[in-house]
Amino acid sequence: MLFNSFQYFLIFLPASVALYYLTLYFLGQLPSKVILITASLFFYGFWNYTYLPLLITSIIVNYAIGIILLKNQTKNSNNILYFIFGIAFNLCLLAYFKYTAFILENINSLANSNIKIPEITLPLAISFFTFQQIIYLVDTYKGATKERNFINYSLFVSFFPQLIAGPIVHHKQIIPQFISKINARVCMDSIKSGIGIFILGLFKKIVIADSFGNWAEIGFQNAYTLNILEAWMAAISFSLQIYFDFSGYVDMAVGSALLLNIRLPINFDSPYSALNVREFWRKWHITLGNFFRENVYIPLGGNKKGTLIECRNLLFTFGLVGLWHGANWTFVVWGAVHGIAVVFNLLWRKLNWKIYKFLAWILTFLFVCMSWVFFKSNNLSIAVEMICNMVNFNNLSAMTWEVFTKSEKLGFSLIVIPSIVLSVIGKNTNHFMGKFEFDSKNITMLFLAVVSLILFSIGGNAPDSFIYFDF
Question: H or E stretch including 54?
């Protein structure tokens, strides 16, 4: 069930919110949380009910390990074996479903063997709920959490607004909200903000992201025949598609949670306004960056053991960031390229060199656009061809457009500049919404306007999925 589907925002979401508040009013906080867990499991099972037991098993096993860690902690026992088992359980689960085919394909290629590669469907959201539970186990092992309530823990993992593609929620950010009496009430300010944020996210997805997605798809499908302008049109289209697609999804997640008076963390802060790649990663997929910084980069030594070790730690961390996104060498290269860029920025800062801000922004934006080519491409051959086309200035004056039609070029030309400007100067949605007051009349008008846009956009076709659903 997609956030941008009528099933979700016209049926499932209103029904879940209404049932939650009715249960809260008549039966109290505990039954209302059970309602949310049930709704979340239904939401997950709607995609593929055969993988619902996987999510439930993962929740039960991690909760049980957490309880063991808590009990042994009070007895000053050695928890290391339980902790290692818990981390191994999560990583093995993720590795089996996400990387088995990738590993076997590379073994076959290197050893010239013919190992049969099983067809394994990647369970929805496995990367996200696995990481959330790893964070919980790490904090439990360190003694940083004392959560023992199974209902609260289950809701933390399965909470439907953020279950599928994040943001990756820390248990300290959300479990206290499930417990709080202040959050367990109808808050009209939260509901109004939630509706407004959800609609803006819907607009980002339907109107902006899906438009650029069409042009990006055409370009990358014809990677070997693109001229330099067409190659850049495709690369910029995907760069804007993935930003508005993912940030639009997060806005809808944040909006959905606000309807239940729950606040999710910010995941984007205008990343395309960054003046260097290091800053870009402080603004892009913030919760994922926090996870790798706290659980990989800092444990490796961070920046505390000299420049050379810091560079090594950065490269290793970004390699894992790339691999987390998908079982393909294109993602590994994408992560490595960003790691190299961050290392370059580190050395640049140590030399105390300066550059004009506008030039720094241009170079950063162009680099990020080019690096997205690896992210989007199905294989390295296509990615290299795209990059070559993007820097091929031969016969520029005599160039003809062979891939994109006149209407596609016109559509791109009309919205590309406003979209770049919006992505650069626009604040995160929470900040943007805080500057406006949405009364019931305005919310109704805005909602009807977006529904009309959706009807116009999809024309009876199934809504487009979100890019990060694949991870």
Answer: helix 52-74
Asked whether residue 225 falls in the same domain as residue 160, the answer is no
Distance CA(214)–CA(174), nearest Å, equals 36
Evaluate the CA torsion angle 258, 261, 262, 266 in order and state its sign.
positive
Residue 10 lies in a domain: no
Helices (H), 304-405: 307-325, 329-350, 357-376, 380-390
Sign of CA dihedral 272, 273, 275, 279: negative
pLDDT digits (tens, 9 = 90+) for 27-68: 999 999 999 999 999 999 998 888 899 999 999 999 999 999
Identify the three-state secondary structure at position 149: coil
Q: Is the pLDDT of residue 358 over 80?
A: yes
6 located within any domain: no
Task: Find the catalytic residue in 170, 171, 325, 338.
Answer: 325
Query: What residue type is assigned to position 405 of the chain?
Result: T
Domain around 42: 21-185
> Where does residue 460 fall: left (phi above 0), alpha (psi -120 to 50 degrees), or beta otherwise?
left
CB-CB contact of 157 with 130 (8 Å)? no
Contact 307, 354 (CB under 8 A): no
CB 13, CB 259: distance < 8 Å: yes
User: What total number of domains does the chain contain?
Assistant: 2
CA dihedral over 175, 181, 183, 185, signed as positive or negative? positive
Per DSSP, 404 falls in state S
Residues 6 or more apart whose CB falls under 8 angstroms from that of 112 comprise: none
Task: Report the alpha-carbon distance of residue 316 to residue 330 in Å, rounded.
Answer: 16
- 325 given a catalytic annotation: yes
Per DSSP, the chain holds a count of helices (H) and strands (E) of 21, 0
The tokens of 260 are what? 């239940």
Distance of CA 456 to the CA centre of its chain: 27
Only one residue has tokens 């499930």, namely 178
The answer, yes or no, to whether residue 73 has pLDDT greater than 90, is no
Which among 133, 157, 185 is the end of a domain?
185
Cα(445)–Cα(15) distance, rounded to whole angstroms? 21
Of 252, 468, 270, the closest CA to residue 368 belongs to 270
* φ, ψ for residue 222, nearest 5 deg: -120, 35
Based on the fold, state whether residues 326 and 439 are members of the same structural domain. Answer: yes
Domain for residue 2, yes or no?
no
Closest CA to 331 of 173, 127, 170, 163: 127
Arithmetic mean of pLDDT, 322-339: 95
User: Distance between CA atoms of 194 and 322, rounded to whole angstroms?
Assistant: 32
- Tokens 């590309």 correspond to what residue? 416
Per residue in 250-304, pLDDT (tens digit) is 999 999 999 999 999 989 999 999 999 999 999 999 999 999 999 999 999 988 8
Q: Which of 165, 170, 175 is nearest to 44 (CA)?
A: 165
